[in-house]
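Journal club prep, notes for RB
We'll compare a predicted complex against what the paper describes. Inputs for the FE2/S2 (inorganic) cluster case:
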Amino acid sequence: MTDPSTEQLRPVAIGSDLERRDGFPKVTGTARYAYESEAASPAYCRLVQSTVARGRVDSVDTAAAEALDGVLLVRTAFDAESLETDDGELAVLQSREVAFRGQVVGMVVADTAEAALRGADLVEVAYSPAPHDVVLRTGRGDLYAPEKVNPSFETDTSDGDIDEAVATATAVLDRTYTTAMYHNNPLEPHATTAYWDGEALTVWDSTQGVHPTRAVLADLFGLDRERVRVVCPYVGGGFGSKGEPHVHVVLAAMAARAVPGRHVRLAFTRQQMFALAGYRTPTIQRMRLAADQSGRLAGIAIDVVEQTAKVKEFAEQTGVPTRMMYAAPHRSTTHRLAALDVPAPSWMRAPGECPGMFGPEVAMDELAEELGIDPVELRVRNEPEVDPESGLPWSSRNLVACLREGADRFGWADRDPRPGLREEDGWLVGTGVASSVYPVNRMADSTATIRREQGRYVVEIGAADLGTGTWTTLAQIAADALEVDVAEVTMRIGDTAYPIASVAGGSSGMTTWGSAVVNAARAFREKFGPEPPEDAEAQGSTEDNPATERFAMYAFGAQFAQARVNRDTGEVRVPRLLGVFAAGRIINPRTARSQLIGGMTMGLSMALHEQSVLDPRFGHVVNHDLAEYHIATCADVAEIEARWLEEHDPHVNPMGSKGIGEIGIVGTAAAVANAVHHATGVRVRNLPITLDKLLPALAG
Amino acid sequence: MDTAITLGVDGEVYRLTVDTRTTLLDALREQLDVTSPKKGCDHGQCGACTVLVGGRRVLACLVLAGTADGAEVTTAAGLADGDSPHPVQRAFLDNDAFQCGYCTPGQVCSAAGVLDELAAGWPSNVTADLTTEPAASRAEIAERMAGNLCRCGAYVNIVAAVEQAVEQATEQATEQAAEQTAGQARR
Ligand code: FES
Ligand code: FES
């Protein structure tokens, strides 16, 4: 390989099990997150939210709030600064129209947090409500095909003739699966500290991308980019919900511009996060599989119905993994949306793949059972030689190896396939398997600078560490690209003062930023040789990878679950989860393992606990806090093990790494659902797998 | 309405005036700029704000500052000894028991509390036999740490870290006891 975009590094620091560089500040809590950035005497901003799901604000009475001691200002659609945008979500306080319940209709800025909160309570808003429409159903007459699905995939695809394949196959499966509405719920709420000095805006924002946030703010407020700085060294989790700016950062900036020379702090409350911070759309997936007696697929099809918001379109690419996962000559995928009076859905960990591998992977289990074929074997039999979608060869594809290795470690060989047979002390026991997949994404526009400073190599790039390990792993990449000890490298990230970097999304960080760092290091060495003078400096940027034209690039995995279901209560426990992944070279095994088990833990949570319950009468999520929106706790998790295969892929990037932030959550819920079926004989096709869905059958 | 209180925080004594609506968490974070305890929900549902008050774990968002007059508060920042981490923190670093770090100061304080509760023989919901000292099994640890949510999903590593810290504390206690016995024998 002579192509510079993939010329392989010699891994020395890469692959070593290094402790996180940001570890000490995190375990002591001295790492300062956005809301905690230093400020002499900050003001506080609290929000007023609409209490109708659709309608118009007729009038606002702010007198009582304004009269309150400590209140500095109140802003509503009647007097807010105007913004330049056609983004319906970010156009906050720009119109009196209400597009969803919980939409921001006012903000109060005060000297203390208590006064701001009380002030927000005192703002009286009068509405002309209009009837709202918030219920997703397949039978709606107004379902439509979006132009593209996230980020730019074809909405529908069709190869061969799926109807013909279904009509003539020996075995046909036609089932509908649903995934719930989910909220990302990073533990750190979306928060901003903003400062306007009359000329320039500085925001300390909790974001997955300082540069993209800067670009949005500059456009909204009509400022040159040079006059906006975004700082974010630490992110308290994002999972996609901090990938695109939400209104908190806009409102904080607006508030700061109204009180020049003063810092303003704004954080969403946990409850507000259920209306204002994005979420994953519920999905309804009709799956069709057509196979011969040996389990070879002739056809595979998925028809997805999901929701978007009238205020802003987001089309989750749920059907996309079905296009490439298994060999089937006849394939068809469609996406249809209902535009509702709800908050805008957005990215949540593995958009597309995460919900879109639930239906297909449970369907494969159902087909295996129907044909009496082992579910691991069924997947192996449908392994495609080349990418069915593009016809390109795989840069590497080790799904079968993951399945085999996982089966081996899990003790799959001894499994009796018959469901509902094993009982231990009143608990029904079963095991299940599902595949995982995630594409290798590379974004445009990332640049790194390397400079010699006091005998050290300083690497600067406006990248983000959401807990993903970037502080540590980019230093490892830089060390190998410079051929120095990793201890000689200083990293600087999370600030628009450093060169441009793409958003931390699509598991693209290492590929994109890592490639920029490698190019900067190569340019640096070329210019200055092995003994660079003080202040020597070079830059490098991510380039297009021509190999993407020649290869289909994905990471794969296999997940195995054991489920125990209480015969009397229907309670489900998952004592064991095992994931085996093939994701190229692993930069840091310690942080990698955390990412993978973290994804699997969130997948377990999706399988058993999570669902946002939308009240059709009022249009809001009723279980809008952490007491009622259940995420897995420490006591819900027993053994979760993540392993990976040695995989060498010279085509993806100079590190040979594939991205691991999202693949861990893909397939977990299906593996658990399949295990629950094996335990009980009950097939739960609608997530989450709660006891009410099991009890009737267990009782009978 | 305001009220004057005295708070001991991580070895420092502060006199401050607080609004009677102010929580201990907000008093620490906003007035004293002690931002080690985090705010994840402000409703006692996540554990991010866990601190030790008089050595016992407490959710600082559920305590009104005015009622904490005279309290001795220890945060995760105060558990460390300058640049050297507390054994629980060392164990979190060793086991990579965190990712984003936002739940972590609360987890660390909670774990320090769990160590003491186990040493004192307090049972939990999963302790089978209430007449014996609870063992520091993984199930016991997971149960006792269940009030501290981690959205990054570091639980497996958190349990391993707490196990390591318990083992270390037990070894230390045994060594100390042995030294004491040896000392007594010499006397
Ligand atoms: S902030 Fe106190 S428990 Fe969540
Ligand atoms: S480390 Fe991110 S929430 Fe626990």
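Talking point for the session: Chain A touches chain B through 62 residues (CB under 8 Å).
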